[in-house]
Amino acid sequence: MNFNYRSEVDGLRGLAILFVVAYHFQIDFLSGGFVGVDIFFVISGYLITSIILTELENSNSFSFTKFYIGRVRRLAPAFLTMIIFSLPIAYLTLMPSLLVEYSKSVIYAIIFISNIFFYKSEIEYGLEDGIFQPLLHTWSLSVEEQFYIFFPLIFLIIYKFYKKYFLFLVIIASIISIFFSMYYFNNISLVFYSIQFRIWELLLGAGIAVVKINKIIINTNNLFLSISRFASVLLIFLSLYLGYTKVFYPLNVLPATIGTVILILICSNKDFIGKILSSKVLLYTGLISYSLYIWHFPILAFDKIAETNIDRNILFLVSIFISCISYWLIEKPFRNKDLMSVKRLTLFLIIKLAIILTFLYLVFINDGFKKRYYIGKINLDNFAYIIDRDKLATELGYPEFKDFSGTKDNKILIIGNSFGQDLFYSLKLTEELYKSYEFSFIRTQINCLNDFITKNSLCNKKITESQRDKFSRANIIILSSRWKEKDIENIDSILSQLKSLNKKIIVTSPSPEFDIKWKYAGTKIYGVTTMLDNFLLENKRVPNIKEIETLERKYYDYWKTDKKNFEYTQLLENASLNNKVGFLDQSKYYCNEKNKSCSLLTENKEKIFYDYGHRTVEGAKYLGEKIYNQNWLKF
């Protein structure tokens, strides 16, 4: 038995990659183009199963070694080449902390589990922030490679012992996979990235292979089948529309997968649809589809990261050009067993992996070559400060944070969002200065306290034993937050409830906030530049004393233009006075009204804020010392 080459399937693959590329290039009328990946999955399941079945039928045996060497020849050379070319670009365009994250994604991609990495990283495919992950597209390659690893053995067992039940088992497994995809649709990232929720598409392809090789469908010339072929094309384009309307997975891709199944089953290069799919353009696009898939996304991502603003049409042409080179000079030669022996293939891969792993090793031991972004003791990579904060949070027991130890008489509980967490850090890091006080923290938005006493919950979530213990043991409760309008609206009710606990209640003003430049990626931030950063970038040195004073006045002047900050401060002070609770103005230890300045560097010339107002670890400690020295708490 021979597994005949089918040009129409290659053309269908070409159509699928055009859908995916159009989606990534944000072409509006193809905004549902991500279904191209689902078409790929069906085709992959069909081709791999066909290869296995053909060998079994011809030799009554199957060589795992031959199979996996074939997969390596097909996938590894071009993929590793793309990784190697991306490494110096990543070094030049990514900040150290992001270079470390990128390097992690490289490792996960090489070992075929990048889908798990991006799920754990909470990167939601399809949102704009995904374009800033140059290897995000490798999630689908990982799903396919996981299928290649496990499927042959499972298939052989079924083939040997339950051959006649294979199609039945495929249908049952597919239904189960689809059912769980719908059951877990609220966790869309889990469903999107995980093979257990994608396996049904690959299995449909496997089912087609069994049907075709066993010639269950023979007649492809009657009117009904002709209509079915046209209907299958309509189903694929229906999925493009459903993708545009945001119908949830798997319902949005089901028509495309069904359409793909029908086309592979009953289409040939002799019928009208098959001739279109076998056209030179689609056929050639299908041939370079793998190279186009692996190259186009990093090209887009690095262009976005570097903010080169190159025209998308030019980037598309560059992607096609590089893909053609990749196909003819890398893919095609390495598939040729006569030209590239197993020994030469192995040597090539070892050299490539050695280059990649050496680079990654250097990235990790040098923390992304972080010295590149240091000027004096100041780091321009503000994500590094977030990482330091996260480490501190872990040390302090995040997300619950450590309970009171019980060794000190006065227990102060701070409640609030990330800005309240900042105050907690400042006090916790200088706790040794306070002989009879200890501090703990509950992270929540202040308005969530409205239901604390009456419903025993925080924003519809039942309070934990740790939170309950902190509330009961605290002598003093400080409400400190980046205040929202809803917090202000509910402050009187909240204070009334808290006063009934017979504890000392203190409200703090909003923290001063300062001017910054955001670099947004959809809903996420991939870069931030403060006024201090701007000075450092322009002058390539730490400011002198006079320049620091000038910058501090600029910080002060910007804070004074923040009308909402002062409005909320006044409202909170009035509410505190009316409810007879304490009020503390945070600007007192941030800024100096006499000098009209706000602190921006510690005494050791380290950065206090890494964005509009969040404190670095050193900044939190520095402000904690100022709080103590100024007796700001006034207990």
Please provide a written account of the structure.
A hairpin with a 4-residue loop joins strand 12 (591-592) and strand 13. Helix 1 packs antiparallel against helix 2, helix 3 (64-93) packs parallel to helix 14 and helix 10 runs antiparallel to helix 11 (254-266). The chain has a five-stranded parallel sheet, with helices on both faces. A two-stranded antiparallel ribbon has the order 1-2. The chain has 26 helices and 13 strands. The protein is an alpha/beta fold and 635 residues long.
In short:
The protein is built from 26 helices and 13 strands.
CA-atom Rg in angstroms: 30 Å
Strand count, sense and barrel status of the largest sheet are: 5 strands, parallel
Mean pLDDT: 91
Across the major sheet, the strand order is 4-3-7-8-11
Unreliable stretches (pLDDT < 50, length at least 5) are 520-525
How much of the sequence lies in strands comes to 5-15%
In DSSP terms (H or I, runs of 4 or more residues), the helix count works out at: 26
Distance between the termini: 88 Å
Looking at the structure, what is the overall shape?
A: elongated
Helix content: 55-70%
- Which class of secondary structure composition applies to the elements? alpha/beta
Which helices and strands occur, and which strands form pairs?
Blueprint: H1 7-24, H2 35-59, H3 64-93, H4 96-110, H5 114-120, H6 138-161, H7 166-183, H8 188-193, H9 199-213, H10 223-244, H11 254-266, H12 272-277, H13 280-287, H14 289-306, H15 312-335, H16 342-365, E1 374-375, E2 378-379, H17 382-395, E3 410-416, H18 418-428, E4 437-443, H19 452-455, E5 457-458, E6 461-462, H20 465-473, E7 476-479, H21 485-499, E8 504-508, E9 516-521, E10 524-530, H22 531-539, H23 545-560, H24 563-578, E11 582-584, H25 587-590, E12 591-592, E13 597-598, H26 617-629
Parallel strand pairs: 3-4, 3-7, 7-8, 8-11
Antiparallel strand pairs: 1-2, 5-6, 9-10, 12-13
Helix pairs in contact: 1-2, 1-13, 1-14, 2-6, 2-9, 2-11, 3-4, 3-14, 3-15, 3-16, 4-5, 4-16, 5-6, 7-9, 9-11, 10-11, 14-15, 18-26, 21-24
